[in-house]
Amino acid sequence: MDKKVSDILYGIPNNVDYTEVAEDLDAEDVSESRIEDVKQLLKNSDKYIVFQAAKLLTSWGIDDGFNVLTRLFRDHQLFGMFIHRLHGYDDTLQHVLNALISYWATKSDLGSQQREEARKNIYPYVAEIINLSSHSPFEINGLFWMVVKYNYT
After folding, report:
1. Phi, psi dihedrals of residue 89, rounded to the nearest 5°
2. N or C: which end of the chain has fewer CB within 10 A?
């Protein structure tokens, strides 16, 4: 991955001191030009870069990223992207789950209607990840606070 792509996907603006992870940037700290640059990466020939771009845009609540991420999920193209550093199992779906939760949280900030729409949008994918976690070793405990707090059953 070249430096330009790396900066687009992982860079943190100089004025930001609350995170070191691009997925956690607040909307006001993400420029429109950066969003457009990330959207362009959705067309990259490298599947890993497409996944990273889709995950980042999804975390920022941007539907273009959500649509690509969920298509990759439905097409079973999201396996082996992240291997757990200690235990060696595929941890990709944990990253997908985190992006989906961030998508919901970002949309929730826009109001109750957007929160409910986002909940409906992520539900089938979250349900499938929960199902897959019953026979895969990745963790989904970060999801349960949302289920309990908002009574999403």
Report:
1. -90, 160
2. C
